[in-house]
Amino acid sequence: MPTEIYLNWGTLSRTWPDVLQKMQKYQLDYEINPTVSLFEGWGRLWETQKKVAGFFKAQPTDFYFRHNVTVAMNDFILGAELPPGDIVVTDLEYGAIVNICRYRAEKDKRNLVTILIPMGDELKSEDQLVDLIMKQIPQKSALLMISHVMTGTGLKIPLQKLAKRTRERKILLAVDGAHGPGVTDLDFSLLDDVDFYGGNLHKWFRGPKGTGFGWAPERNHKIIHPLMAGWTTFETPIPFMPFGEGHRWNISMLMAYCLNFNAFYALSDAVDEWQKRDPRKVYAGLQAKRMFIQNEMTKSLGWKVLSPLVESLQSPLVTFELPAHFASQGFEIIHALRNQKNVTVSITPLKGSYALRLSAHIDISEDQILDGIRRIKDYFHS
Known about the structure:
The protein is 41% helix and 14% strand. By secondary structure, it is an alpha/beta fold.
């Protein structure tokens, strides 16, 4: 069996090696005296939250940790006070998050409206995309839920432009940032028109598995109510006082229960890793890998690119249209490629069919990518 080629960093990226080592050390240190570790942990968690929030230029009191983006999106979609009106999603959204919207819509007896977003060369510019989205949103809409980066095609939404328009129309904007952190310079000081953002830190940011966050500007704290009650819901008991500097909303959103938070502590080390590497160089490296994959796949297999061709709308995720007779195989292609060719890819549901999605981080060499593409071609041409 040939050496494994991993071309699905978009589903889960490998944690930075140094960060993984630190997390494992924290895990072992915690077990020396779990009781002391737990009660000393709240202050340590707050220091970590401040550091990670600072990396994204967010106020730490607007930012809180969760295990993944799905939990964070539940916090807002189910926990926020919504005005009357429809809930709107796009036809490129991740199914689990759409189901949260559907659940809220059915619970409140609202309409769930799906708007259409083009793919590939149909997308011409950021302004065209934003205009297209806004024209489809019904006049009486309460919430637009949209991904920062679409998991199916890798389309990156120009959030500042879109958020300005939704706020003008008094439509709440909730962003599924599963693929946002680590893909682009995510700067919350520029996103005050966004009403909520949930993100993953175990994808492109390359933090430990099971780390994510939610963010909401101060103006929206009053409309977001915790879905889970516990020790810090109404007051701050003494053991939790080192957390949050007295900020009641942020403390009420705390995961205030017995847990080894070593994965979250290691996010501090992930920030150090990013700063050591220079984020701008990482983002540029990801774009270079993305273009290399797109160009080599097009030359080798000639398949249609479903991801945007406009650079400002691109992310490291590159998606290709499967020939119809292969698209019907769906997720079985993932297992077949892994078992037969030892290459890992993503097969993503997309507008009623399936497509092949490839993604690589800066660690993957061009030679490894070429080897992976050769194996993919061998599989589909055999």
